[in-house]
Amino acid sequence: MQKITLQEVVTRDGFQIEEQFVTTEKKIELINRLSEAAVDKIEVTSFVSPKAVPNLSDAKEVMNGINRTPGVTYSALVLNLRGTERAAECGVEEVNLVVSVSNTHNKKNVRRTTEQSFENFQEMMDYLSSTKMSVNGTLATSFGCPYEGDVSEDKVLRLVDQYLELGATGITLADTTGMATPKQVFELSEKVLKRWAYLPLALHFHNTRGMGLANVMEGIRAGVTRYDASLGGLGGCPFAPGATGNVCTEDLVHMLTFMGYEVGANLDQLIDSAKYLQDVLGHEVPGQVIKAGKITDLHPISE
Amino acid sequence: MQKITLQEVVTRDGFQIEEQFVTTEKKIELINRLSEAAVDKIEVTSFVSPKAVPNLSDAKEVMNGINRTPGVTYSALVLNLRGTERAAECGVEEVNLVVSVSNTHNKKNVRRTTEQSFENFQEMMDYLSSTKMSVNGTLATSFGCPYEGDVSEDKVLRLVDQYLELGATGITLADTTGMATPKQVFELSEKVLKRWAYLPLALHFHNTRGMGLANVMEGIRAGVTRYDASLGGLGGCPFAPGATGNVCTEDLVHMLTFMGYEVGANLDQLIDSAKYLQDVLGHEVPGQVIKAGKITDLHPISE
Question: Which of A118, B52, B248, B256 could, after both became Cys, cross-link B233 (CB 3.0–4.6 A)?
Fold first, then answer.
């Protein structure tokens, strides 16, 4: 069976909307646990304005405090040149750029049009070419916009092209507010991979309307092998009204493992880490396997 | 696109494990709403011992109190001859028999071996042949047993055969405690439909580990067009430790509708009914679309 690559986003996408600040120490502890559980990539934090995302204001301290495990890529989200420089100073290995396919969503999110975001990326790429950092380009609202509704597949393809021309070496199609249906995932993924067969393409789903794992299955069927997920299913976008959690890491790894896919990450360590996360947050997380147990956790007959 | 048939089980599978008794009047009101929403079949109640399932002790009053809508089939679960006779007296159109593929689960559930259940079914079928009621045979734990673990596909096929020999005209493979993976669903469904190409085969999933909708997608891919679902995602089996809800009706219809499948049931009426259900129960239900809204529920740009 295929190898599926797992990109953990809990400490970025998950924590950015938490009401309470998670201490730097606990963030570092959680990331170290995720490294030990052998996820393939960790989006550690964002280097953005502490005013915009107060929960990630300790980006530098977190990046400098974590243990680096060989085989794990440590990435961070950046929105401008200053953030990119700060990421470089902390030894970030990959930066993740984000623009929304929907103009309205992009304006709401970063107060720029899609085209203005790309002008801005050019400036960042000029700097990035002098560093060792690799660049991933994320297209938010690739499967629908909570303000505009349907987005055009042609626009998605055009923006993938723009990212690649800029020099991005990976692309993520993000379903920012959980609007993708399995059918749509299959069709759009197939189109992208038909045009760029060897593109490292990742899919980022939210389970907002329960379709998260079904969407992953259709992505796999279309040939996509890289998936973002968030421990405990934590997450959402503060600018996307009504959104609930991301696809849950341990639920995803549980499903894939028991279907025989090769997943580098260790399921038991992820489940333990999700329980630790729940303790850190002091509230329940949406993940289901930490509640129900694995399908191999049998019950004694005498029960 | 294909027509997908929807079989609603909330007032049976959902209510049987509710802590509080739902009044007969409210059960009738909910079933009438589901009929108006045009689901294809409603498993109204069970005619079982009121001691075993006190929440369904008003089976007769509920069956006699509901409005019958043409095009909707009204079924009930029965476990013995007495229950079957009671069902007939109330004008039940289809009885649903249940046996677990796993011997251990069957003993826990009905204090009989699998073979003893089938002996018992013979007696019920002798009576049923004198009535107009049709017979559906459900195989619980078709995808795994919480006590025994893996179940044999050969045993599932053998029990389908036994049901058909008895005279059942429909079969349901039930994932009683949410152990099925999408891969397993595809493979077992394909095997059953390969052997009995025209069999009215239904799948009954629980979302215990988040795989519910992914399992439906793989069932559809294998050619299965009938699905059980429970409004609000309510449900579980009192004899299956740790189980949470069934596949959620409105989440399922939401997904299928936006993929272009023909679903008789009306999504908006189902969402309204799920909200009514929540009011009746006085607690949240696991369904996600009632929280997040439909993917077409856009947000004003000025927000």
Answer: B248
Interface ipTM: 0.96
Q: Which helix (H) or strand (E) holds B73?
A: strand B73-78
What are the residues whose beta carbons fall under 8 Å from the beta carbon of A194, sequence distance 6 or more? none
Cβ distance A210 to B248 less than 8 Å, yes or no, reads: yes
Instruction: State pLDDT tens for residues A231-290.
Output: 999 997 555 444 469 999 999 999 999 999 999 999 999 999 999 999 999 998 989 999
Q: Roughly how many angstroms between the first and final C-alpha of chain A, as a whole number?
A: 37
* CATH superfamily assigned to domain A3-292: Aldolase class I (3.20.20.70)
Please give the average per-residue pLDDT across B26-37, as a whole number: 98
Q: Which residues pair with B98 in a beta bridge?
A: B138
Task: Kindly report each contact of residues B14-20 with a partner whose C-beta sits within 8 Å and lies 24 or more positions away, as own/partner.
Answer: B14/B230, B14/B231, B14/B232, B14/B234, B14/B235, B14/B246, B15/B55, B15/B56, B15/B234, B16/B46, B16/B53, B16/B55, B16/B56, B16/B238, B17/B55, B17/B235, B17/B236, B17/B237, B17/B238, B18/B55, B18/B234, B18/B281, B20/B281, B20/B282
Which chain A residues are Cβ-neighbours of B149 within 8 angstroms?
296, 298
Find the DSSP H helices in chain A: 24-36, 59-65, 81-89, 103-110, 114-128, 153-166, 182-195, 212-222, 249-258, 267-281, 289-292
Name the closest residue on chain A to residue B255, using Cα atoms: A181
Q: Which residues of A touch B291 (CB under 8 A)?
A: 242, 244
Taking contacts as CB-CB distances below 8 angstroms, the residues of chain B near A291 are: 242, 244
Q: How many helices (H) and strands (E) does chain B have?
A: 11, 9
- Closest residue in chain B to residue A214, using alpha carbons only: B214
> What are the backbone dihedrals phi and psi of residue B262, each rounded to the nearest 5 degrees, phi first?
-85, 115
C-alpha–C-alpha distance, residues B119 and A296, integer Å: 31
Task: Tally Cβ neighbours within 10 Å of residue A201.
Answer: 20
Sign of the C-alpha dihedral, residues A198, A199, A200, A203? negative
Asked if A244 lies within 8 A of B216 by C-beta distance, the reply is: no
Residues in a beta bridge with B95:
B76, B135
User: Which residues in B lie closer than 8 A to residue A290 (C-beta atoms)?
Assistant: none
**At which residue do the structure tokens 């295929």 appear?**
A2
The closest alpha carbon to B257, from B267, B249, B272, belongs to: B267
**pLDDT tens per residue across span B155-180:** 999 999 999 999 999 999 999 999 99
d(CA A237, CA B156): 44
| CA of A286 vs chain B CAs: smallest distance (Å) | 10
Q: Which residue has the tokens 């059942």?
A: B168
User: What are the boundaries of each domain within chain B?
Assistant: 3-292
- How far is CA B22 from each of CA A92, A98, A296, B28, B230, rounded to the nearest angstrom? 56, 49, 34, 10, 16
Shortest Cα distance from A297 to chain B (angstroms)?
A: 8
What would the two tokens of residue A166 be? 């800029």
d(CA B62, CA A68): 63
- Rounded to the nearest 10 degrees, how much is the dihedral formed by the CA atoms of B51, B52, B58, B60? -110
Q: Which of residues 143-182 of A touch B (CB under 8 A)?
A: 144, 146-149, 178-179, 181-182
Structure tokens at B182: 């999408």
Continuous segment of H or E residues that includes residue A173 = strand A170-174
